[in-house]
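Complex 290.
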Amino acid sequence: MSATTTTARLLPGKPVADQVLADVAARSAALRARGVTASLATLLVGDDDASAGYIRIKQQQAAALGFASPHEHLPATATQADVQRVITAWNDDPAVHGMLVQYPIPGHLDYNAALQAMDPDKDVDGMHPVNMGRLALGIPGPLPCTPAGIEALLAHYDIGVAGREVVILGRGATLGRPLAMLLAQKRPTADAAVTVVHTGVKDWARYTRRADILIAAAGVPGIIQPEHVKPGAVVVGGGVRYEGRRILPDVDESVAGVAGAITPRVGGVGPTTVAMLFRNVVAAAERAHP
Ligand SMILES: NC(=O)c1ccc[n+]([C@@H]2O[C@H](COP(=O)([O-])OP(=O)(O)OC[C@H]3O[C@@H](n4cnc5c(N)ncnc54)[C@H](OP(=O)(O)O)[C@@H]3O)[C@@H](O)[C@H]2O)c1
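Predicted structure with NAP bound:
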C-alpha cells in the first residue's frame, strides 16, 4: 500500500466504454433492421485458459450487442496452413465482418503472418500493415484499439489535446507508435504536439516533465514516478506487465499525488480497448453494407 494521498481526478475507462458500446448497440440494431447481423469471428489456437477466457468474454459482449460470433478452435499442434485456411474462409465469407486471432498463439506459429493474411477491412485489431498505412495517411479504416481507446478516453473527460504537449513513453507497434500518429492527426480530439521517447532517449524524463498529457506505453512496471511528471499533468497508464494474474502498471501509484488527472491502476485503458474492438466490428459491417 502506498502512503501517498491521491489528489488527482480519476479517469476510469468503464464510463467511456459504456458510452461507446451504447452507440455500437444502436448501430448494430440499425443494421439488423436492414437484415444485416454484424459478426466478429474469433480463432483460438491451443488450450491456454486465459486466452479461452478472453474469447468467452468477447463472445458474451458480442451477443449482448446483437452480433454473431462464429468461433474456431484449433489444437496447439495446428500448422500455419491450418490457421491460414480458417482466415481465408473468413476472408471469403461475406457474413463475417471482423475477425481476430487471439494472442498469443503457440510459438511455432507466426502471428504476424496470420495478421497479414487477413482481409485488412476485417482486421478489427487495426494492426494489419494496410491499416497502419491508412492511419499514417489519414484514410478511414479499422483503428488500433488501444490508441483509439485512449483518444476516446481523453475526449470523454473533456481533456483538451489540441495544441497541447503530449509525451508518449514507448514506441511499440501496438501502442506508442500508432497513438503518436493518431493524436497528431488534424482533428478536434487530436491535433496535439506529440513527442515520443524510448530507450534511445536516455534523458526521457526531460520530455515527460514538460508534458501536459503523459502517456505511459513502455510495459516497464513503475517506470513513471512522481519526479517524471509535471504537477497537474494528465497521466494515462497504457503500459502494463502481467505477473500471473497480477497487473503491474507502468505508472507508480504515488504519481496520483502529483498528477491533475490519472487513469486508475485497474480499469483505465483496458475497457476502452475492448469497446474499440466492437466499434471496429460494427464499422466494418456498415462499410460492407453501405
Ligand atoms: N491496456 C491495454 O489494453 C493494452 C493494450 C495493448 C498494449 N498494452 C501495453 O502497452 C505496452 C506497450 O505495448 P507495445 O506492444 O506497444 O510495446 P513494446 O513493443 O513492448 O514497446 C515498448 C516501448 O517502451 C520502450 N521502453 C521500454 N523500456 C524502456 C525504458 N526503460 N526507458 C525508455 N523506454 C523504454 C521501448 O523502447 P525501445 O523501442 O527503444 O526498445 C519501446 O518503444 C505493453 O505494456 C502492453 O502490455 C496495453
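The longest strand covers residues 40-45.
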